[in-house]
Model the fold of this input.
Amino acid sequence: MVGLLKRLLGKESIAFQVVLRRIPASPGALWKLATNGYSVYRSGETSFPPVSLNLESTAKCNLKCPMCPRTDYMTRDVGNMDLAFYRRIVAEIDPVFIALAQFGEPFLHPQLEEMVAFAAERGSVTRITTNATAFTARRLKSLIQAGASHFLISLDSCDRETYERIRVGARFDHVMENIRLLLEVACGFGERAPVISFNVTLTRENAGEIPAMIAFCRREFGLSPTFSKSYTYGEAALRESAIHTWPPAHAAIRAGYDLGRELGLPEVCDNLRTLHNDIHHPVRGYRPCFWPYFTTNVTWDGRVYPCCNYFDCQMEMGDLRSQSFREIWSGRAYRQFRRQLLRDREQFPICRACELVDVGINNAIARVERFLPPVRIMAGRRFLPIVRPVGMPPVGSAPS
Done:
């Protein structure tokens, strides 16, 4: 069942291809996934509690990456989340997945180990998204002992000069040493070792390196990268670096896909096929988004917002300093957002600029409705099948 869930959700979603590296198979977690799935299917104004929590343990960062809105566009205050406040939030939401990152570097929080331990004690899968600049053997060992489930390392180039232009403030050789240190420490934990993976955020600066990054990560670390497009967050300056209309990126995606097939890397092939479809066959018209049903985002100081595209809390759902999460999740702002998003995603400028679509969830439910027509009376929206080509086009073809 867990394997089927991974295939259904990850087939058409780069986000799920990253997050589903480790799914808990406990009865409690599966029940939460089922009730949340029902909320998505019902698509009402309210929802069962979210299964996924993106929590900003800190908004502080030691780098200034040009594709990150934090560098030039974020105006809100930065700081570290208080540990007692964190424990209250996690206990209230009780998520299946916790990502300890949003717009800061988690390793800059002095109590990151305590945060991971508290989540693990409650049975949550904990992912730490990191730039890998601040590792020490002691901290890595203590984090894994605390129960860290997944380290997702942002690694945007295998070329020293390109990497240091993108990750401004980081040193390539130091990061490589840190990644090897993590692998060495994790190896000592045997079956308890966390998942370790790389995410490559693609811009015109590095998209031509897709085949080289696959070969590099396999050769140096024995791991495969996941590639994702850079978000524009609705900002015109960030759209200038997007890869959608840039032919070298399209050729590199095809070359990377062919290399993945040659090396027998099905996850890489699925990832690049999804990336290709997102660029060449974008979903027109009906663009389903179910994020306000299964996930929520919390800033270091307790403000709740619907997804990471609202990086500056441009749409604030509530404040956990003065409200309970239940009040916010079922409150007026969230109910109105779900209702309006269902009616017309285009009315929200940031949602309109966002290219993420929940094709995998949509098609899984559409398939159920096809074979069990009576269940349609329970749905709050039409789940129209979204069909996109399965194969890859010739190198250099332009997007449709």
